[in-house]
């Protein structure tokens, strides 16, 4: 089964931000609220990942609530791929 690398997910995240004339910072420690990455943006990113994997990601609300930084998003997507 194919997996998407962390760098590929980061590039997808940057694309979502570029569409809103925003820039994804280099630091994975950057809080999402500082860069304006919202839940709708996460949903768009998740859909892009699903399209690339041709698999549905299964995640729950409690897991989403723990996401605070760029790195948290990348870690979360990495974990979801392990369950495929």
Automatic annotation (TrEMBL):
<protein>
    <submittedName>
        <fullName>Acyl carrier protein</fullName>
    </submittedName>
</protein>
<feature type="domain" description="Carrier">
    <location>
        <begin position="3"/>
        <end position="81"/>
    </location>
</feature>
<dbReference type="InterPro" id="IPR009081">
    <property type="entry name" value="PP-bd_ACP"/>
</dbReference>
<dbReference type="Pfam" id="PF00550">
    <property type="entry name" value="PP-binding"/>
</dbReference>
<dbReference type="InterPro" id="IPR036736">
    <property type="entry name" value="ACP-like_sf"/>
</dbReference>
């Amino acid at each position: 089964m194919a997996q998407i690398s962390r760098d590929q997910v980061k590039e997808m995240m940057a694309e979502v931000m570029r569409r809103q004339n925003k820039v994804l910072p280099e630091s994975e420690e950057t809080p999402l609220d500082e860069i304006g990455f919202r839940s709708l943006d996460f949903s768009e990113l998740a859909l892009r990942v699903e399209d690339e994997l041709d698999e549905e990601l299964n995640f729950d609300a409690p897991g989403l609530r723990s996401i605070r930084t760029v790195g948290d998003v990348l870690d979360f997507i990495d974990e979801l791929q392990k369950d495929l």
